[in-house]
Amino acid sequence: MRVLNVIRTILLLSPLVCNSVFAIEQPIVVSFADQPINTFNQQLKQAQLQHRGWSKQPETISAHYAGANFKVAKIKQFQGKVLTYNVSAADAEHPKMLLILSLQKQQNNWKLDGARLTWKCKNGQHFSTDRCSISH
């Protein structure tokens, strides 16, 4: 039931507005894969204790978790949390990926609440965890 609530939440969010690299679109997410967050939260906590710059704002925390292949496309506040949408560019070898991170501020420190990965296959209509066919 929790998964259905999360999917409903994602579907009800406003359109994903991206910079010039990405088209403006309404993401339709059919399914996603939960990603590990415990080790990252330990690193984040340590970085906050050391006052590292990347650990102070949801956008930079999100970029740090997602890595160089993703761009933060949108940040949205929702039910007391901050959601970030991180999009990778699709190429011939990989599908377009969407990484949705949920962050929550507790006692003046940020904590990653959830990380969900989904992708859109070439010519796909929605984001899901379906296998993509690779054409050679």
From TrEMBL:
Signal sequence extent: 1-23
Organism: Shewanella pneumatophori
Keywords for this protein: Signal
UniProt name for this protein: Uncharacterized protein
